[in-house]
Model the fold of this input.
Amino acid sequence: MSPPSDTREQFRPPEHPTEHFLMTTVVGSYPKPTWLNRAKDLAEDDDHDFDDGDLGEALDDAARTITDEHVRAGLDVVVDGEMRRNEMVEYFAHRIDGYEFNGPVKVWGHNYFDKPSVVEAVGYDEPWLVDEFAFTTGVATGPVKVPITGPYTLASWSFNEHYDSEAEVAYELADLVNEEVRRLVEAGARYIQIDEPALATTPGDHAIVGECLEHIADGVPEDVRLGLHVCYGDYSRIYPEILDMPVDEYDLELANGEYDQLEVFTEPEFTKDLALGVVDVHTGEVETVEEIKDNITRGFEVVPPERLTVSPDCGMKLLPREIAARKMENMVQAAREVEAELDAGEIDVGFAGE
Done:
């Protein structure tokens, strides 16, 4: 199994007030300002003189606004809330050669998804996220994380009309993701998160995801932090096998299950960094600072403080924006208080690896 990561310290703020450092960040998506949705409607309405240039300006303004909101909340590593993205598969499929769209399909209840089809060999034409990263870096006052939808999810949530198997699609896409990661690294990115929500629903395919990650990590410098976000599911079906995957950090959705699966990661020892979900993005109730502090300390049952990242459970885009902001603010405050209590020796850390 891979040794613990040493990529974390580069994200410590220069004047961090405590010896202990619990890195705070968000998973990725965040509620869009209501005016951005209106701007998109105007851009699609031929009766209004609102063109692509105007929409681009609105997208810049939204990315600037949300990045600043993350900075003001005190997050150590920010994202732009994925303001330029619509859905996590659709956004990338529009930018990958070999995909086409044939209209929305019903996925559950009355919900529809514009599910793309792979109709020919996939290919990489131009960067997907480099401009987004450069803009966010120019707005932020600290480090920026880049979330990318992983190749397994891109394959699993698409129709395959060209390759012999879904796994083959995933491996081909993994090479494209590797190309994008390399471009991002050249642009200065040092924290890249691969999002694989499909793994939670099809845990038997963890070996495919592992092979995809081998493709993605190929040639990536050792100082680049690679994370993997996996949404809520039966984690016992992918652990401990995931420890062999070439990533530094696992971002896991555990708060919404009240940490009922935390014990899964105590045997054998969890040897990677843990990005622990400490606020539930599926409820509009804002957790108190004390509640979040209790959640943070649950993470010490799995990893020591120097390997714990503090994060929401998942993307926050479905929450009211005011609620999302308050959750972030309380989360950061809780992390800072736990750090101070760790420095003072007021918290007994007894993780499974001791």
Remarks:
- The first strand starts at residue 23 and ends at 24.
